[in-house]
């Protein structure tokens, strides 16, 4: 099973505990790798820990969630960011959409809404990974067709590195995927 790394940015301790409780009950493929209660700490920790999904409150100290969102998306547009707010304000939603937010949840967060949003983010991450794998494999095939074997070798090594990175060097997951693909071809 591939584990997706999730980071929580929220300044209300009870809200963090509620999110963790929901995830412990419903998110078997999600690992909470950290949390921050302010914008500056959040940016620093997100850079350091490299989560796949960020749950981000808009109303946090130092820099607000919209500015944190803009920074995250500028540095890595593939990270999934789910904004959380107690405010149902059009201005926030408009800014969030312009900054390429992946989803927007209103407090109090309902477990089903949170899990639906996270599962939608996971599906998108999987799709992005599949597209990158397909592009790299096309590179390998194209190099072979052109009889550029050193380019093919380089592209194939890069492809294998991508697979290992995606599976976080979990050999059992890679082996299971390999077996799954083989049985699909039969």
Provide the β-strand percentage band: 15-25%
How confident overall, as mean pLDDT? 82
Oligomer: single chain
Order of helices and strands: EHEHEHEHEHHH
Q: Main β-sheet: number of strands, strand sense, barrel status?
A: 5 strands, parallel
- What level of helicity do the residues show? 55-70%
Which geometry do the CA atoms define? elongated
Structural class: alpha/beta
| N-end to C-end Cα span | 23 Å
Provide structural commentary.
With 186 residues, this protein is an alpha/beta fold. The chain has seven helices and five strands; from the N terminus they run βαβαβαβαβααα. It has helices at residues 13-26, 39-49, 65-75, 90-98, 111-145, 149-166, 171-185; strands at residues 4-9, 30-36, 53-57, 80-85, 103-106. Strands 2-1-3-4-5 form a five-stranded parallel β-sheet, with helices on both faces. The two termini are 23 Å apart.
């Amino acid at each position: 099973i591939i584990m997706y790394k999730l980071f929580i940015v929220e300044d209300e301790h009870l809200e963090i505990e509620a999110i963790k409780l929901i995830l412990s009950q419903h998110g078997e493929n999600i690992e909470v790798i950290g949390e921050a209660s302010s914008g500056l700490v959040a940016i620093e920790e997100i850079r350091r820990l490299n989560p796949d999904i960020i749950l981000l409150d808009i109303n946090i100290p130092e820099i607000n969630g919209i500015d944190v969102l803009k920074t995250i998306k500028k540095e890595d547009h593939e990270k999934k960011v789910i904004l959380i707010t107690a405010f149902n304000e059009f201005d926030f939603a408009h800014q969030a959409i312009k900054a390429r937010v992946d989803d927007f949840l209103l407090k109090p967060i309902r477990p089903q809404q949170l899990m639906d949003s996270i599962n939608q983010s996971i599906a998108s991450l999987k799709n992005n990974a599949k597209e990158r794998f397909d592009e790299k494999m096309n590179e390998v095939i194209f190099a072979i067709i052109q009889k550029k074997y050193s380019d093919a070798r380089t592209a194939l090594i890069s492809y294998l590195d991508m697979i290992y990175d995606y599976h976080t060097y979990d050999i059992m997951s890679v082996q299971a995927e390999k077996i799954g693909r083989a049985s699909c071809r039969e």
